[in-house]
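Progress note, sequence design subtask.
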């Protein structure tokens, strides 16, 4: 509310939030947060003690249900160690989730899925700033990726034994510098072309919105040249 100028001070924000039913703050930090002003609001009569209790009760009830106050021995997660991180079981589960979460918007003449057994004699071109750049494949609030576990479109197709050629066309999503000649050369020699475009955190994140939905920089030009 403060950032959007609905309120003008932390105290005013705390009063408005509590009165609206909010009982949990994503704060600016321990030394600089809104709800630390609740005692002042209570002393000034802007909120009542009963209202404060009504806000706190469901919050702590939820924390109790989550086991935050249980002895560590009762928490099944306390027995886990770092061996479960990136374990084969979890990586296989991530792969299954990725495969089952794809959204296919259009499939002209049944082009997809590409099958490994049909690719041996095919020449594939993988192009675009998202074709082989692991860093741009993760959205806002994603964990720090470990490169050895990331399969870009180019890397994934090369594992199938296909004859894969590649060019990014532009090195990053903003696509300010576009190499048309290289793209035309790679695409022109291919039987199947996969074009990997998008935005990524370089272009848009929380609090960094775009004014339109157009592809950034020369990405649309890259797409049109590949199709042509």
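Output:
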């Amino acid at each position: 509310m403060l950032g959007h100028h609905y309120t003008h001070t932390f105290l005013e924000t705390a009063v408005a939030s509590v009165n609206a039913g909010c009982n949990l703050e994503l704060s600016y930090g321990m030394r600089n947060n809104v709800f630390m002003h609740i005692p002042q609001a209570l002393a000034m009569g802007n909120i009542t003690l009963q209202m404060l209790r009504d806000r706190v009760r469901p919050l702590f009830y939820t924390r109790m249900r989550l086991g935050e106050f249980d002895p560590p021995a009762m928490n099944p997660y306390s027995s886990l160690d770092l061996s479960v991180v990136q374990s084969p079981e979890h990586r296989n589960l991530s792969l299954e989730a990725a495969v089952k979460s794809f959204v296919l918007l259009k499939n002209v003449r049944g082009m997809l899925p590409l099958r490994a057994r049909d690719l041996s004699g095919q020449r594939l071109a993988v192009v675009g700033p998202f074709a082989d750049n692991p860093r741009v494949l993760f959205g806002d609030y994603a964990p720090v990726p470990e490169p050895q576990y990331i399969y870009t479109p180019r890397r994934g197709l090369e594992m199938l034994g296909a004859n894969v050629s590649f060019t990014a066309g532009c090195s990053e999503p903003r696509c300010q510098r576009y190499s048309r000649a290289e793209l035309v050369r790679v695409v022109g020699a291919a039987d199947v072309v996969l074009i990997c475009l998008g935005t990524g955190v370089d272009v848009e994140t929380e609090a960094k919105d775009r004014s339109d939905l157009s592809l950034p920089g020369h990405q649309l030009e890259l797409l049109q040249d590949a199709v042509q």
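The mean pLDDT is 91. Work on this subtask will continue into the next period as scheduled.
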